[in-house]
Amino acid sequence: MIARLTKWLILPCVALLIISTPITLAQAPSPVSVYSIWVRLSLRGFSQQEIESLLYHMDKKTIDQVKERLRQIVLAQLQLRKIGHQLKQSRDKDDLNNVVNSIETEIRFAGMQNDNLLKLMIKDRYGIRLDQF
């Protein structure tokens, strides 16, 4: 008798909880998904301003985390491409322009054309100002 009474009390309560609880709770998008959105848009040719305007509804902290990750990736790519070595080995203006074009290409692929902090980091690391070319 107690088992039947418990069954009739617990079963409706569990059913009520299941029905009233949303299947997924609303969550802010993770930095990883915003990062992948940013990269896809930049590879499609969107500029930093266009990407930021499309992601205006995202949390500013998440966007800042994505930008910091992109800065580190650009610097790592420049290191992999041995930009510092190419800069030291450049003998004339054409060599220097090739180095600058390589840097600008990496920045454009990351969709960070207007990021002054990234340009300052490149200047500090390689001693080259991009706005002078």
Tell me roughly what share of residues is in helical segments. over 70%
Mean pLDDT: 83
> What is the 3D shape?
elongated
Strand count, sense and closure of the main sheet? Answer: none
Low-confidence stretches: none
Distance between the amino and carboxyl termini: 88 Å
Summed up, the domain count is 1
Number of helices: 7
Radius of gyration: 25 Å
Using DSSP, what is the number of strands? Answer: 0
Compressed to H and E, one letter per element, the order equals: HHHHHHH
Q: Would you give an account of this structure?
A:
With about 130 residues, the protein is mainly α. It has one domain (about 30-130). It is about 70% helix and about 0% strand. It contains seven helices and no strands. The chain has helices at about 1-20, 30-45, 50-55, 60-80, 85-90, 95-110, 115-125. Helix 2 (about 30-45) packs across helix 4 (about 60-80), helix 4 runs antiparallel to helix 6 (about 95-110) and helix 5 (about 85-90) packs antiparallel against helix 6 (about 95-110). The longest helix is centred in the middle third of the chain and has 21 residues, at about 60-80. The chain is elongated, with a radius of gyration of 25 Å.
